[in-house]
Amino acid sequence: MLRPLPVLVALLAVAAWAGYLKLFRLPPIELRYPLAASDVGAARCRDCRFAERLATDSIRIFTPLAALPPGVAAAFVEAEDGHFYDHRGVDWAQLWRAIGEGAASGSYRFGASTITMQLARTLLLSRERSVLRKVREMAYALALERRWDKARILEAYLNEVDFGRGLRGIGAAACYYLGASATDLSPEDAVLLANILPSPDRYAPAVARSPCASPP
Length: 216
Fold this sequence. Notes:
The chain is mainly alpha-helical. About 55% of the residues lie in helices and about 0% in strands. The chain has helices spanning about 5-25, 40-45, 50-55, 70-80, 90-105, 115-125, 130-145, 150-160, 170-180, 185-195, 200-205; strands spanning about 35, 60.
């Protein structure tokens, strides 16, 4: 005869596992890019009709990590996640530090996001600010690091990150803001673009030097 308590515990365990799979299991990820970096050169980036389409239609331009000039990817890692190559999706030390600072100031913010967490949020979650979304972001980041290596995560991040004004990815951002292909960027250009990311609407106007990047 089955005892009620062990049966209840087993049912609760199954329910908890089912809930975990539903909330935190990494969904399938399919990345599609209508354009490649080889399709876009300086002349096309100086075509303001094309640049405007990048912003209004959120056209992604796939740029392989290997095609970026030396120092470009490193500039984004330095700006957004200095310990990217040391953690496995979540920078726990940075997270605890942010929680401690929030407790001391009485103001809790959803910060301490690694590049992998930002990618998980961009690909799989909304921008809702809630504890549950943050937990799912962390769970997805840990799962992403098990599925992909660092190079693929960084490549996907650079091709998907939001640069404001509807621009997604380094290819579209370089073309629109700087009038250049991402494959022609200098490390200094990369620093300029990376500086947009904390607040694109606020910082983009100071970065834009292409005549096609009209004021918002």
